[in-house]
Amino acid sequence: MGQIGVFFLKLISHSPFWVIYLLSDLFYLILFKLLGYRKEVVYTNLRNSFPEKSEKEIDDIAKKFYRFLGDLTLEGIKALTMSKEEVEKRMTVDLCPEYIETIKNNRHAILLMGHYGNWEYVNLRIALLKERQVFVGVYKKLASKAMDQFLHSARGRYGTDLAEMKQVSKRVAEHAKNGTPMAIGLVTDQAPSKERGYWMNFLNQDTPVFLGAERYANRLNAPLFFARIEQPKRGYYHMSIVPSVLEPKEMEQGEITEIHTKYLEQTIQQRPDLWLWSHKRWKHKRPEGLPSEQISRRYPGKTS
Length: 304
Prior knowledge:
This protein has 304 residues and is of the alpha/beta class.
């Protein structure tokens, strides 16, 4: 199955974009209309995140999300063989002065994003930046060895140092020991175990969040930046790398996590259909006895 899967991925990936979006439209009909893929999860997540919206508004967002999910899936396959020129055309970038200064000073940086927009394009585009350090990207290893090797090779072909989730700390330690400046790319909206997560309010819900970003930032004294994604039109994205926390050592425990999570929340609220609503983000409940003060701080900043 692994080799057959690789064959079909390659076949689709080499298709022109008009075929990619034709397949995406078909994928939408199958996912939403025929199978109702995770429909209960999607609608529950949307209703809980936007209690002020009417059922019609929720339904409109859900339909747009399923259309985007089709695009995201097929674009992700297409990205496996896209040329440098095509990647640069499909994902444009603005770097804030603080990020450029961090690179010039040979400092480490933490680059944060969520399951928002096309994160496969983000991985490739960051690797193609002229102003860059070693880019350490995190990935989840697949059970199929053939599929895992193919995806690992395709995603890392422009120089991204891909690290399996369990090996990130080791890889970061190796680069730090060698004095190699690096940008660590972290997708921050994964669902940690309820005991390990930092609990806070996110999209109107009590939510555990990984503390990894602030731990790496404090260990390396590395400024944190947020990759804000926009979609001007179908198939095209724009990434703005903006400051999140520039002096991590000055922050209290949990504060960095609240700041970057609020950045993501504000981005989602501006254009909700580009977030991964089919993800079971709220599958855990806060453990009994955990103090409510852990969600008392609120960050009033804006992403712009």
